[in-house]
Amino acid sequence: MSSEAGTNAAVVGAGRTPAVPRWVMLIAVWAILIAVPYWLPLLGGYTALAGRVLVFGLAAMGLNLLLGFTGVLSFGHAAYFGLGAYGAGLTLRYLAHSTPLAMLLGTLLGGLAGTLFGLLIVRRRGVYFAMCTIAFGQLWYYLAYSWNDFTGGFDGLRDFHREPIGLGGLTLDITDGGNRFYFFLLAVFALAVGLLGLLVRSPFGHTLRAIRENERRARFLAIPVERQIWLSFSISCFFTALAGTLYALLNNFADPLALHYSLSGYFVVMCVMGGMRTFWGPLVGATVFVVLQDYISSMTVNWMSFVGAIFVLVVLFFPRGLLGMRGRRGSA
Amino acid sequence: MLEVRNITKRFGNLVAVKDVSMSVKTGELRAIIGPNGAGKTTFFNMISGYFPPTKGSILFQGRDVTQVSAHQRVGLGMGRTFQITEVFPELTVHENVLTAAEVAAGQTLRMLPSRADAKLANDVASEMLALVGLAAKADRLVGELSHGDQRTTEIAMALAQLPRLLLLDEPTAGMGDQETYEITALIRRLHKERNYTIVLIEHDMRVVFHLADYITVLDQGALLAEGRPDEIAASEAVQAAYLGESR
């Protein structure tokens, strides 16, 4: 490489200053989310739709820790989402009428399954890794599908519903589908996303980005690459499983499709469409995805072709995703 | 500091390095030179731990590291840069160096940002960026920088791991005159003002004779000569080896 070309490159590069400062972005996101029950009906939407956005957004943001921040592709995150959903549903149906316990057990079920499975596949890379994650995910799908007596089989798991939450003397009744449940979802989402944000900015998070950027170099910095990828995978599974438990609470229902690999693909689409190198990108992707699905599926059963076409357009015209245009650093 | 004892490396029938020894003292700057195919890179890779020697041993600070892996040697205090630039292109200069500092401080498992630790690693990163003269470009993406600045970032990353020995693999490779001049001045400053112990491979003889305290000359895998720059310049054996290359 000639030094002249190098100097030119240095002049052209404009640096990283994002178009919108981080704190503006943060206030905007939370203000929009908190105000949903007030503005969404004006646009003809309903609050439960926003609940779906939060649930899928959290699942996709969890996946994005692995996909966008570590550079490792999983095509099987529906497994942990579904295990979270079934874990919560089975707890409420067979074990105890406790929403927090259902969330805890569901998250543990999905997260620990991911942690154990991660140990086996952490040395695989690229397509091999992705294939392993699909295969493992489908295992759970067929288990839920065939174990009629316990999981409800193809019809899904019914006969459970979210329970009021006791907070000392107070009781938080989230059993109706109104705003109170939306705010409950938003609170859980906020806690989880806050944790994710801290994680991404921690030294641990920095090592993940280093692995994404240049695995060989990361190894020579003495970063234990396999261990970090395993941890990233496991943590990402815990967050996606948590989203799965919320999914079960949202619908009072868990179905095998929550475990199916096509949902894993949707999660990846949400990340890529929204911008996987950004922190909030997957939430934006989930919003577009859920709204399109809701709107178009009321007109045609082939809604996926439309979502697919829009996905292709986004990838062509916004190769770094919708939020990726905002300057490189969307990382909160 | 670094003691290489009679190391040999065979690849099948090829003997790439044959019974070479070298002793580098603390604070010394040692250059390894030789015509193409002399075994410099193989020799260097054994020092950094990229692969072990077939025979012989390597001692670092009195400890036998012959079988210690490359990244464990980093932990013991061997920092290195690469012949081909190896950086994290989509991270900023500061993030590149900060990550190196955090890893060296043993924070790879710290999942929450902590103020005290963050300040520690940040201070190291800032200090090293100032030292190599990249402070003004700290917030630029490394991928957008010139080749010379990318190589300088690499040196800052190695420094941020607080090494006792710095291994530089052709630090001026692919550089123009101005960049070569700047990086040479930087290495000289690290050596003279900061007393780093440095071992480097270099093709550019102006750079070598300007920087080195001692020079090790390899030819066809064997040690041809060793001495101060003026001794090496006067050596007939060395001249013959280099002339032989151009014939």
TrEMBL record, chain A:
A Pfam family reported for this protein in Swiss-Prot or TrEMBL: BPD_transp_2
UniProt entry keywords in alphabetical sequence: Cell membrane, Membrane, Transmembrane, Transmembrane helix
Membrane topology classification: Multi-pass membrane protein
Residues passing through the membrane, by range: 20-41, 53-81, 101-122, 127-145, 181-200, 229-250, 303-323
Keyword Transmembrane helix among record annotations: yes
Subcellular location as annotated: Cell membrane
Official protein name in the record: Branched-chain amino acid ABC transporter permease
Keyword match Membrane: yes
From TrEMBL, chain B:
Coiled-coil boundaries: none
Keyword terms, alphabetized: ATP-binding, Nucleotide-binding, Transport
Domain ABC transporter as annotated: residue spans: 2-245
Gene3D superfamilies (alphabetical): P-loop containing nucleotide triphosphate hydrolases
One of the record's GO molecular function terms: ATP binding
InterPro entries linked: AAA+_ATPase, ABC_AA/LPS_Transport, ABC_transporter-like_ATP-bd, BCA_ABC_TP_C, P-loop_NTPase
Entry superkingdom: Bacteria
CDD domains cross-referenced by the UniProt entry: ABC_Mj1267_LivG_branched (cd03219)
Role description: Involved in beta-(1-->2)glucan export. Transmembrane domains (TMD) form a pore in the inner membrane and the ATP-binding domain (NBD) is responsible for energy generation.
Protein name according to UniProt: ABC transporter ATP-binding protein
Organism: Bradyrhizobium jicamae
